[in-house]
Amino acid sequence: MSQTEMNKGCPVITVRGETLPEVWEKSVIECWKRGIAIKTEYDKTEDPPSRDCTMIMEVAHPFKEPRLHRAFPAGLEDLEIYRQEVLLGIHDDWIKPEEGKWEYTYHERLFDYKIEGRSIDQIDYVVRKLSETPYSRRAQAVTWKSWLDPEYDDPPCLQRLWFRIFEDYLQLNVHFRSNDAFKAAFMNIFVFTELQ
């Protein structure tokens, strides 16, 4: 494959580090330096293109201090509200698409995924599955509903949480279809490690 062929499309960038803040900071810098300029569906006509890439972020010690980056764009209060929104469902009562309100929350999709008149607690499934079969590759939770989400203005960015156990270590792979590197990624990384 020629260098020209390798440079086509969206670049795949991998960043590694010890802590959440270190990896997040590296990812923002690398996305800006090596990502491609491209419009998004959220942009206004006059907005400059965003920077885009497929980012693989590997955090060796996600619970090692420091866990917070001093320059993440939201404050501690916003981070705590978001943590409670995702893990505890404090905004699940805002889900009222028929009233023009939220179509979903991550908490609702992970802990109360509704399909064909029933509800699935995917996180409970993950815990049970790994308790019964620690080597399973099936312990995952998804958010996407292919029959609904393509029609939404703001479909879920989070797509999948995939949990694996290696000896006594729980590994979490988080897949996003879109994750604003500067404005959203740090809060997402922090909150989903809290789910671990």
From TrEMBL:
GO biological process, alphabetically ordered: dTTP biosynthetic process
Boundaries of every Thymidylate synthase/dCMP hydroxymethylase domain copy: 89-192
Q: Name one GO molecular function term.
A: thymidylate synthase activity
One Gene Ontology CC term in the entry: cytoplasm
Give UniProt keywords alphabetically: Cytoplasm, Transferase
* Name of the protein in its database record: Thymidylate synthase/dCMP hydroxymethylase domain-containing protein
Which lineage do the record's taxonomy fields give for this organism?
unclassified sequences, metagenomes, ecological metagenomes
